[in-house]
Design goal:
Belongs to the bacterial CoaD family. This protein is α/β, with parallel strands linked by helices. Helices cover 44% and strands 19% of the residues. A five-stranded parallel β-sheet has the order 3-2-1-4-5, sandwiched between helices. The radius of gyration is 15 Å and the shape is globular. The mean pLDDT is 93.
Length: 160
């Protein structure tokens, strides 16, 4: 039986920090599905379709990674795909409290699905999609924060 993990997030937009987790996760699991979820607490810049397309473009070189989107609960999605693991990236201690709450609820809903936390590379520990959007909004260079397709998409969004 192959090991299937899902890597969920809002990815608005995907950053090099996200890609760090995805690439490293792809080395550990036989199959990794990156899933775009809509976080109701966030007002996304990109639609779910745009985010999915950007992630596909940025991960096309990783053969065991696929990309999907869902409006369902994370645990329901994991069950539908028969995923054994949810892979979550952590940047700092501040991420841990939020992630612990979500993981505890997911465990209550289904204790068969494990959540694994992976620390992002130190060079990306400050990086968030929110920071990238804020910097891009004012025309600053984000080429060392996001892949080229994302940089182009940000420029297009903010030039309107």
């Amino acid at each position: 039986m192959s090991k299937l993990a899902i890597c969920p997030g809002s990815f608005d937009p995907i950053t090099y920090g996200h890609l760090d987790i995805i690439q490293r996760g792809a080395r550990i699991f036989d199959e990794l599905i990156v899933v775009v979820f809509n976080n109701q607490a966030k007002n996304p810049l990109f639609s779910a379709e745009e985010r999915t397309a950007l992630i596909k473009e940025c991960t096309k070189h990783i053969p065991n990674v696929s990309v999907d989107s869902s409006a369902d609960l994370l645990i329901n999605y994991a069950q539908q795909k028969e995923a054994q693991v949810v892979l979550r990236g952590l940047r700092a201690v501040s991420d841990f409290e939020y992630e612990m709450q979500i993981t505890s609820m997911n465990r209550k809903l289904d204790d068969e699905v494990e959540t694994l936390f992976m620390m992002t590379n130190n060079q990306y520990s400050f990086l968030s999609s929110s920071i990238v959007k804020e910097v891009a909004k004012y025309g600053a260079c984000v080429s060392d924060l996001v892949p080229k397709p994302v940089e182009k998409a940000l420029i297009a969004k903010f030039s309107k």
